Amino acid sequence: MKVHVQTEVNGEAVEFLCDPTTTLLEVLRDNLGLRGSKEGCGTGDCGACSVELDGALACSCLILAAETQGRSVATIEGVATPEALHPLQSHLLKSAGLQCGVCTPGIVVAAKHLLEQDPNPTEEAVRYFLAGNLCRCTGYDKIIRAVLDAAAEMRGEAA
Amino acid sequence: MSEATDFKVIGTRPIRPDGVDKVTGRASFGADFSLPGMLEGAVLRSPHAHARIKSIKTDAALAAPGVKAVVTGADFPQVAAGAIEGGEGGGDFADLAGNVIARGKVRYHGHAVAAVAAQSRAQALAALALIEVEYEPLPAVLSLDAALADSAPLIDEGLMTSGLPEPATAPSNLASVIEMGNGDLEAGFAEAALIIERRYQTPTVHQGYIEPHACVGRWGQDDQAMLWCCTQGAFDVRSMTAKVLGQPVGSLKVIPSEIGGGFGGKTTVYLEPLALQLSKKSGRPVRMVMSREEVFRATGPASAATIDLRMGFSQDGKITAAEATMAYEAGAFPGSPVGPGTMCVFAPYRIANFRIKGMDVLVNKPKAAAYRAPGAPQALFATESAMDEAAQKLGIDPIELRLRNAVEEGDSAIYGPKFGPIGLRACLEAAAAHPHYTKAKDAGVGRGVAVGFWFNVGLQSSAEVHINEDGTVTVIEGNPDIGGSRASMALMAAETLGVPYESVRVVVADTETAGFSNVTGGSRVTFATGMAVVEASKDIIAQCCSRAASLWSTDQDMVEWRDGAVHPRPGVNVEATPLSLKDLAGQAGRMGGPLLGKASLNARGAGPGFSVNLCDALVDQETGQVQVKAFTAIQDAGKAIHPSYVEGQLQGGAVQGIGWALNEEYVYSPDGIMENAGFLDYRIPVASDLPMIDTQIIEVPNPGHPYGVRGVGETPIVAPLAAVANAVSASAGVRMTELPLSPPRVLEALDQA
Question: What backbone torsions phi and psi does residue B367 show, to the nearest 5 degrees?
């Protein structure tokens, strides 16, 4: 028996049919064609599928798609505007804060959530907040710097 | 020497060409591709570490809802033995085929036994449960000691040890032996004032790329096939898959997606032949994606190793003799990286008297795959731990001890060739002067030093440079961009052609579009494929000069390329304004057709890479937990084409090495089942575990590359194991010789001290 779900993704009304066991990540990727969210583990350990659900940061591999009925989902695809990247995205590029890039969408979504809660985080705060987002390429150094630089720019402090 | 030292764009830090796609989620990785009518595949994996397959019944699975095809080992041809060339992991095609799908026996828990394609993944998974396999379980061999014991169960009943002085007379789990040596070992040890003799052990670890293996395969009725997959080498996937399926290479087209990390683990095939065989049987495209658990259980771990080391030192710290016996776990099929391990173990030092023995040993674990400088981290963990202990016992500064023994240009490497210009001494001197080394340590903190080494490789590469009609540039090459190599290629093309970086776009093309290139591995892409891009750009310049000369009715040697344009040579009596790439591209149709430059080469002269790492670590005396307080990676890059991505290699390799040293290991049950097959329990370093990783790039140009490049990708993972262990040993006050230095192990050592 399929479930009929009406929800909102990146500000747009969407509807889909899914099995009761289907995850939000599967629906985003397979039903809605939003493949920026990645499955690195399927168990909520790597953060590559990070999304916001009603403004709360979550791993979309741990959310059932049916749970999103009447709620609001924000994914990596909604972060940049047609005119410009988000400061986090441009600072990740400037700082070379990505190598293979597969964890990057999750990092952007999680770090954006952090900066909305705390516009002036310490290095330690960024490190602990992003501890749920695994990156195997960079050693995190340039990611952390990019987040701190983006935060400074968003506060109007950057050169 | 390098041709140019004043660079216009090389050495700058522009944004990578594929950057925007990767920060917006647009970039398409292995699991992101789909085709109309596509089926989903799934793999049935062995529940035993070692067992004979008595029978497989697939009828019920085939009759299940949505199922379109089932394959087992019986659906694949027997593959003749033959060495896999140009790959990074080593090995043999027959073993590769046996690893892709079991025949007769399963050799590890997770070994593929059958595969199903169905309309949905849920249907495919449900059908797996309907496949009936009858096994006769066999005793599992899970350690080097167990594998080499006299009465050990045989993993491959036909395996005769190669490399022995006399041919082996009976099968064993010892696949091969490598021996090399020089001088008079016992005389060297007799001369020694100090001998360090210890056993060093490192665990089975995984490359830990965040993107699981994934592919889509489509087989046509004309026996032409296409594969979309994430890989470090589309041409390697093509040759390996063609071999496993018994098809001509030319019948298979491989289209590489973006790749979500590989570190050597994506230089072989697992799912690709299964997807194509399922597609052949079903007549539909088939997608296969591994779960994280499957990645741990069935793909390339790095070899666990046991290294017995003996090193002799004179009172003033000169190495008088060195001996290493190195046993590496190959996993269930031959082909551990013990070979490169033996090349690297003593490579940083001048040693007149040495003997090295390497052993490639089968155990009932997944077949080892390449992992970043394959074989070297284990080897240098041993040597650099012994060097640290010697420095301590002789009362010599650890960097000074290494300087007294360091190899230099003109020395013969232990594995044969003479070193050209190398950066070991420069790295050591930089480390000694580094603020990290000169500043006082915090209370309780131990400081570790270690040297890293990787020889780097060249191999075959191709590139094309196309000049578009407005003078913009398209570079076509065949090496998947795993960490910013499109940027390096664009920088080298822009530098050579004298055009802005932004006017160059780099395409990583498929096996029918790009010329042949070996794998993205061996730290070879910026070096070898970069050289092909430079050569192809020079081909363009030669064509431009010829066209300008013809236009100006003069000889080609009367003109020259300068600042991105053809000029008459100074003093040549030609009335002409310089012709830029844009001018010539715009008139190409009237001057012989499109400007297309190409190069294909087998790159020689890969300069070896040396590094020095510094680590400050603090051991919690109550819990045994280790905190890395500071880490500095210093490495010779030859010439850093894009310094940010070179720093990124140093930092990423350092952190993988820190994980190897402190946390990571496969934990096995007594019957050979991995008990921590997920990122929660197989703990790779997370952001809150780490400090910033400081870097210093040393540039000793490699004369083998037009811009002085030497490979940088692999060396960074080599030194951290010992740098961390030496720091932990100093903080704990106990010499730590077995990795990982997890809290229980450190506590045990503290208790025994």
Answer: -60, 125
Contact between chains at B292 and A79 (C-beta distance less than 8 A): no
- Given CB atoms, is B24 within the 8 Å cutoff of chain A? yes
pLDDT, tens digit, 9 for 90 and up, residues B115-171: 999 999 999 999 999 999 999 999 999 999 999 999 999 999 999 999 999 999 999
pLDDT in tens, B17-47: 999 999 999 999 999 999 999 999 999 999 9
- Name the 3-class secondary structure at B336: coil
Whether the per-residue pLDDT at B6 is higher than 90: the answer is no
From residue B90, how far is each of A10, A87, B240, B369, B714 by CA, in Å? 47, 44, 12, 8, 17
Residue B654: name the closest of B610, B719, B700 by CA: B719
- The stretches of B48-196 forming alpha helices (DSSP H) are 59-62, 93-100, 121-128, 144-148, 185-191
Distance from the B31 Cα atom to the nearest Cα atom in chain A, whole angstroms = 9
| Residue range B542-568, pLDDT digits in tens | 999 999 999 999 999 999 999 899 999
B23–A104: do the CB atoms touch at under 8 Å? yes
Chain A residues touching residue B654 (CB < 8 angstroms): 139
Distance, CA of B466 to CA of B474 (rounded, Å): 5
Question: Minimal Cα distance from B658: which residue of A?
Answer: A139
Note the ipTM here: 0.98
Interface test with A, best of B686, B695, B697 (most A CBs within 10 A): B686
Distance CA A144, CA A121 (A): 11
Q: How far apart are CA A27 and CA A19, in angstroms?
A: 10
For residues A134 and B685, give the distance between their C-alpha atoms in angstroms, rounded to a whole number. Answer: 8
Q: Could you tell me which residues come within 8 angstroms of residue B626 by beta carbon, excluding any fewer than 6 positions away?
A: B617, B618, B619, B620, B662, B724, B728, B731, B741, B743, B746
Comparing CA positions, the residue from B396, B387, B357 lying closest to residue B452 is B387
For the purposes of burial, counting CB atoms within 10 Å of the CB of B23, is it exposed (0-12), middle (13-18) or buried (19 or more)? buried
Cα–Cα distance measured from residue B358 to residue B328, given in angstroms and rounded to the nearest whole number = 8
Q: Give me the helices (H) in B627-706, please.
A: 643-662
pLDDT exceeds cutoff 60 at B90? yes
Residue A38 has its nearest CB partner, among B211, B483, B689, at B211
The CA-atom distances, in angstroms, between B477 and each of B460, B469, B656 are 12, 20, 28
Task: Please give the domain boundaries of chain A with CATH numbers for all domains.
Answer: 3-78 (3.10.20.30), 87-154 (1.10.150.120)
| Rounded CA separation B652/B416 (Å) | 30
Q: Across residues B347-370, what is the average pLDDT?
A: 98
Tokens at residue A36, please?
């920026």
Is the predicted pLDDT of residue A59 greater than 60, yes or no? yes
Q: Do A48 and B210 touch (CB under 8 A)?
A: yes
Region B478-507 average pLDDT: 97
What own/partner pairs with CB < 8 Å and gap ≥ 24 does B434-437 have?
A: B434/B614, B434/B632, B434/B634, B434/B696, B436/B614, B436/B616, B436/B630, B436/B632, B436/B694, B437/B399, B437/B614, B437/B632
Contact B690 A143 (CB under 8 A): no
Tokens read off for B123 = 């249907």
Q: Kindly determine whether residue A140 and residue B648, on different chains, have CB atoms separated by under 8 Å.
A: no
Minimum mean pLDDT range among B33-42, B86-95, B110-119: B86-95
Amino acid, res. B651: Q
pLDDT band at B1 (very low <50, low <70, confident <90, very high): very low
Name beta bridge partners: B613: B450, B633
* Backbone torsions φ then ψ of B332, nearest 5 degrees: -80, -10
Confidence label for B89 from pLDDT (cuts 50, 70 and 90): low
- The SS3 assignment for A52 reads strand
